[in-house]
Every structure is written in C-alpha cells, then in structure tokens.
Amino acid sequence: MRSLNGSETRGERLRRRVVTIPAILIGWVVVTALLPALVLGTLAYDTVRAMRGHGRYAVTRMTLFGWWYLVAEMFGLAFMLVFWLITGFGLWRRAYVALAYALQSRWATGLFGGIRLLFRLRVEVEGLEAATPGPMVMLMRHASLADTVLPIVLVMRRCGIRMRYVMKRELLWDPALDVAGNVLPNHFIDRRAGDRDAEVRHITALAEGLGEEDAVIIYPEGTRYTAEKRERMLASLTKKDPAAAVRAAEFHNVLPPRPGGPVALLDAGIDIVICTHVGLDEMAEIRHFLDGSLVGPGFRWPSGGSPGRRFPTARRRVSPGSSTSAAGWTGGSGRTGGRREPPLSSDSR
Questions:
Q1: Residues 6+ apart with CB under 8 A from 135
Q2: How far, in Å, are 34, 147, 329 from residue 299 at the CA level?
Q3: What SS3 class is residue 125?
Q4: Residue 114: is its pLDDT beyond 70?
Q5: With 90 as the cut, is the pLDDT of residue 233 above it?
Q6: Averaged over 47-59, what is the pLDDT?
Q7: Distance CA 16, CA 26 (A)
Q8: 94, 102, 95: which is closest to 1 by C-alpha?
Q9: Stated pTM of the model
Q10: DSSP states of 217-264
Q11: Is 298 helix (H, G, I), strand (E, B) or coil?
Q12: Segment 96-113 mean pLDDT
C-alpha cells in the first residue's frame, strides 16, 4: 500500500524536493563546518544570560540539536537512496516498505534521543499493554513539535506496531519525512483543500488491510494545542454555534476534536486507543526551546488521572460532540464492550 497523498502530482513533489534536499545538504555542510565556532559563541552568550538568571544554556542546546537534526536528515535521505537502489529502484515494493519502516523507527528514535539528552528530558511510560495487538486507530493529543515521533518511539519501537499516519501536508517540507513518508502508507492532509470529502476518503482508506501489527494514528485536534488557540476556537464557535461552544468548553487542555477524519475511521470497526501526555506543552514552538523552559522537565505518556480505555468500536459508536465522545477524548471513563485493556490514556484536564 502506497502513500495516499493522492492529490499531489509528481511534478509538485519533484519541485519541492529540488528545493528541500539541496537545502538540507548545504545546511548540514555549513553548520558542521561552523559548529565549533557556533558552540563557543552560544556558550559565551548563554553564560552572560545565566549570570543574569536566564537561559539555562538553552541557545547552546538548541544549536547542538539543530545540528543533530541535520545529521538525522542526512542519515535518512542517504539510507532511503540505498534502499531505493537495492530494491530495484523501489520496484520490490514489500522490501522497500519494510526497510522504510525500519529506518523510520531509527530516525525517530534518534531525534527524540537527541531531545532527551540535550534537554535532560525525563520520560515515564505506562499502559503500553493497550497498544497491542492491532489493528487499532490511535487518537493522539497534539501539544508539541515532538508529537509526530512519539508514537514511533513509544509504540512502534517497543510494541512492534507499524504506524499509518494522518499528517498535515506542511510536514513534507522535511525532506527525510517526505521521501520515507511517501513510501509508507500515510496520508498528508491538505488543510486548505476545497474537497473535504476526498480528504476524508483518503483517511478512511488507511484503515484497509490492517493486521495485528498495524495502527492508524490521527491527531483529532488538527493542530497543536495552546491556550490561545483554544480561546480563539471557543470565540469562533460561540458566534457560529453556541451549543457546540458549550460542549467545546468542556475540553480544557486539549482542543475540541475535528470530527471528519476520526469519525470516518470509526466506520472501519477497529478498536480506538486514546493517547495523551503531559510535560511537552513547552515544546509547542521553537521559542520554547530557546527560553530555557524546556530544559529538565518530566514527560509522562500517558498522563495521570482517571483511566481511559481501549474502545472496541464494533460495539460502541461515538458521535462528535456527544458526552461519551468528550469523556473519551479528555480521558473520562466510558462504557466498553468486548475485551478490556489496562489504561493507556487518562484525564488531561
């Protein structure tokens, strides 16, 4: 099964890669050559800031992580080229996809490992029993720049579950993610698309042919949570649909879910796993890396509180905006049928 990025032409893809791949290569060469000077300069700057009670050497950490990101990109692109060649220019599809999945796991683990090391991030994980076996649809809280790699690091790597992603198309400007992600069965959604029904059909198609080692992952909020975004969304809903605004106000540390893609996936009759986390909200924007607020936090996945569950959708249907939908997304208890799993998500309010 190929990427379902069906509305993009080969010409569009080629024009993007002609820009992004050389840019990453040039960036890696330049930053690597200048890295000693950059580190000395940022250390001096951070030392002055530290004397004034600011920073925690955040700019130096961010500089090193920026270089590590470029290394990971070059690693990913180089191996995807090798895989393309040894699989007969990608014609041996099964092997090509398997190699891309293996690379995805190592690429994401390397990136997140760099964050953990450089920013002294402490990680706690619980309830992974609910993440296996597949097939399943994972509904993931979206609050940080690292949310794309978390399911790979914490579920795919540990449980052997292969992820089929629903991601925003803007992420295709990351060349390694672009090249590998378009080999794997993912869909890069165009949030400005006029034909919303076509986008939903592409998302629904991801649920076809799932096995015990497969999952579809989607971010129901559609964008990263911030308190400011929540207030703007509530204000907009109050004008358009006051009743919906009242229901949306029940969501405190998550945004109200956008129902199109998640609800369409329910029709596949696949178990739903709701995943949330706390501790990475300070990673929502690049400026958070630079102001020192990210250094040394604890990160817990899933978050603590009242337990969530794995919901067998063959027996339990959820409609957008319903009280059971709100309870599930924010982690409240809900009725389940069939098999029960240990808690995977919890109350994020």
A1: 207, 210, 211, 212, 214, 215, 270, 271
A2: 33, 12, 20
A3: strand
A4: yes
A5: no
A6: 84
A7: 16
A8: 94
A9: 0.80
A10: EE-TTSS---HHHHHHHHHHHHHH-HHHHHHHTT-SSSPPPP-HHHHH
A11: strand
A12: 96
